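Researcher: Please translate sequence to structure tokens.
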Amino acid sequence: MSAVWTQLWPYLALILVGFLPNEVWRALGLVLARGLNPDSELVLLSRAIATAIIAGVVAKLIVFSSGALDTIPLAVRLAAAACGFAAFLLVRRSVFVGVLVGEAVLLAGGFLLSP
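Model: Translation complete:
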């Protein structure tokens, strides 16, 4: 039993420290946002801020990447993002298709242009 525990304790710690504290705030947000008008200024502002934060994180990951992603040339990373966005727009705003096409371009460019 202790061998299993030593292998699984990092996952339990990740759930207890990373996942559960965030879920409390998400559940509280659902309860509090239940009566808000989706077209109100406050909701539109919070949606715009969330979108800007996500765009900033994605741009940082593309331009200032680290680890294995850093071995792929910047032009390939930018092309993968552009192709993924184009696919997202062309296929009825499908996030799944956009991510799939972007990932395929990134992997193909990485394999073809890797040293």
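Researcher: Any highlights?
Model: The chain has a mean pLDDT of 90.
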